[in-house]
Each structure stands twice: as C-alpha cells, then as structure tokens.
C-alpha cells in the first residue's frame, strides 16, 4: 500500500516514520510539505511527531491551520487511513479530526520513557494485528500528552469503541483521562496516539511491539 508522510516545520520524527513505513511496507512513502494543497493517491496518510512551530500557542495548534489540512480532512472523509503520532495526534485533535485535546502533562515535566499499553479495540484497520487486551511496550516522549475531553465527548468515545490504546495500569505518564493513549474518529479510519510505535519496530530498538500497527495500516496482515 502507498503511504504519505506530511512534514511541518519543527517536526523531528519524520525520518523515523519514513524508515518504519518503508521497512514494513516495502515501498518508500511520499513526503508531503505542509504548504501543499493536495495529497498524492495514497492509502495511508501519516503525520509524525515533533514540535511543529515550536509548540507555540498550543502543541499542534498552528500546524492544524496549514494548507495541507484541508486535503487531509477530505481524504479522511473519503475513508482513507490517517495516522497521527504524538505531535501528529495533537495536530489532528487541534484540527477537529479527532475528539478531545492534549493538555500539559500532569507532572508539568517532559516525559521520555517506555510505557506499557493495553490494546483496547483490536477490531480496526490499524489495530487488527494485535488482540484485544494485549499489553505491548511503546516509548513516549512529550510534554503535552494529557488527554482530556468533556464528559459527553468522553462517554461517546468510550461508548463507540474509539479508545485504541490505554496506558496499562500504573504506567499513565501524563494524567490522561481514563488512561487514554490513543483514540480513533467515529469511523475508525483516523487514529492518533501519543506513544511512538515507529521507535519500536526492530531488535536494535529493543523490541518490535510497534510493528503490528504499521503492518495492519499498510495491509500487511491478513
Ligand atoms: N515527540 C513529540 O512528538 C513531541 C510532541 C509534543 N510536541 C510534546 O512535547 O508534547
């Protein structure tokens, strides 16, 4: 499957994401600069992590107003898979493509470590390579990963199976409501998560628990 990685000024995880997608999908992704107004004909659009616009105003707030976002919105509405990791997740919430917001970590500190995640919904294009309830390792590196949504939105997200991943008991690194680490849109073709699965895909990374997410998103699993 063909994929595109969208790059905004200040991102720093784009190369990791490009390498992961090529390694797992076998096809080099197309890189798209945020000032473009159109996307190539791809099956998966990825917004990687980093510090778009230096996280000024709020993380992801300025990038969410970039020209490319209209094209991403249109692709998402057509059912194309869209994945946002870390700053990508923040951009997708700021753009209104995913519910909720990412606030400053409860500790007010940047957190960089490996946490354990529980796969909450394994019945989607992104998560079908895992089983429901499976516990996986995944690194996090952020200062604004504290997931929040008002109670009506949270009820809807929980009720619709839109929680993709939760931090496993005792490992919530940022104070996220209901230990939420990643959410889907209602149609489940848009996924955002704070942890970095692209940084745990081979032995040299110390594990490969992140691999199944890309394998599924790129249709490499049955
Ligand atoms: N690694 C990242 O993508 C960092 C995300 C974001 N800028 C934060 O620190 O919260």
TrEMBL record:
<dbReference type="InterPro" id="IPR010075">
    <property type="entry name" value="PRibForGlyAmidine_synth_PurQ"/>
</dbReference>
<dbReference type="GO" id="GO:0004359">
    <property type="term" value="F:glutaminase activity"/>
</dbReference>
<keyword id="KW-0315">Glutamine amidotransferase</keyword>
<protein>
    <recommendedName>
        <fullName>Phosphoribosylformylglycinamidine synthase subunit PurQ</fullName>
        <ecNumber>6.3.5.3</ecNumber>
        <ecNumber>3.5.1.2</ecNumber>
    </recommendedName>
</protein>
<comment type="subunit">
    <text>Part of the FGAM synthase complex composed of 1 PurL, 1 PurQ and 2 PurS subunits.</text>
</comment>
<feature type="active site" description="Nucleophile">
    <location>
        <position position="86"/>
    </location>
</feature>
<keyword id="KW-0547">Nucleotide-binding</keyword>
<feature type="active site">
    <location>
        <position position="198"/>
    </location>
</feature>
<dbReference type="GO" id="GO:0005737">
    <property type="term" value="C:cytoplasm"/>
</dbReference>
<dbReference type="InterPro" id="IPR029062">
    <property type="entry name" value="Class_I_gatase-like"/>
</dbReference>
<dbReference type="Pfam" id="PF13507">
    <property type="entry name" value="GATase_5"/>
</dbReference>
<dbReference type="GO" id="GO:0004642">
    <property type="term" value="F:phosphoribosylformylglycinamidine synthase activity"/>
</dbReference>
<keyword id="KW-0067">ATP-binding</keyword>
<comment type="function">
    <text>Part of the phosphoribosylformylglycinamidine synthase complex involved in the purines biosynthetic pathway. Catalyzes the ATP-dependent conversion of formylglycinamide ribonucleotide (FGAR) and glutamine to yield formylglycinamidine ribonucleotide (FGAM) and glutamate. The FGAM synthase complex is composed of three subunits. PurQ produces an ammonia molecule by converting glutamine to glutamate. PurL transfers the ammonia molecule to FGAR to form FGAM in an ATP-dependent manner.</text>
</comment>
<keyword id="KW-0378">Hydrolase</keyword>
<dbReference type="GO" id="GO:0006189">
    <property type="term" value="P:'de novo' IMP biosynthetic process"/>
</dbReference>
<dbReference type="GO" id="GO:0005524">
    <property type="term" value="F:ATP binding"/>
</dbReference>
<keyword id="KW-0963">Cytoplasm</keyword>
<feature type="active site">
    <location>
        <position position="196"/>
    </location>
</feature>
<keyword id="KW-0658">Purine biosynthesis</keyword>
<comment type="pathway">
    <text>Purine metabolism; IMP biosynthesis via de novo pathway; 5-amino-1-(5-phospho-D-ribosyl)imidazole from N(2)-formyl-N(1)-(5-phospho-D-ribosyl)glycinamide: step 1/2.</text>
</comment>
<keyword id="KW-0436">Ligase</keyword>
């Amino acid at each position: 499957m063909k994929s595109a990685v969208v790059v905004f000024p200040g991102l720093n995880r784009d190369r990791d994401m490009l390498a992961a997608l090529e390694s797992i999908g076998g096809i080099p992704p197309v890189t798209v600069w945020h000032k473009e107004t159109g996307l190539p004909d791809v099956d998966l659009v990825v917004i990687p992590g980093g510090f778009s616009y230096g996280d000024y105003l709020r993380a992801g707030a300025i990038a969410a107003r970039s020209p490319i976002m209209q094209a991403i919105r249109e692709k998402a509405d057509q059912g194309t898979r869209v994945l946002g990791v870390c700053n990508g997740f923040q951009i997708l919430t700021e753009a209104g493509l995913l519910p909720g917001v990412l606030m400053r970590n409860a500790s007010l500190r940047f957190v960089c470590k490996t946490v354990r995640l529980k796969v909450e919904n394994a019945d989607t294009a992104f998560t079908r390579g895992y089983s429901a309830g499976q516990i996986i390792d995944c690194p996090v590196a952020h200062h604004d990963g504290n997931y929040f949504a008002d109670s009506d939105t949270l009820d809807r997200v929980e009720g619709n199976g839109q929680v993709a991943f939760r931090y496993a008991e005792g490992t919530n690194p940022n104070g996220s409501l209901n230990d939420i680490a990643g959410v889907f849109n209602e149609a489940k073709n848009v996924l955002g998560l704070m942890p970095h699965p692209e940084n745990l895909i081979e032995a040299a990374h110390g594990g490969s628990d992140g691999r199944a997410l890309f394998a599924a998103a790129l249709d490499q699993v049955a």
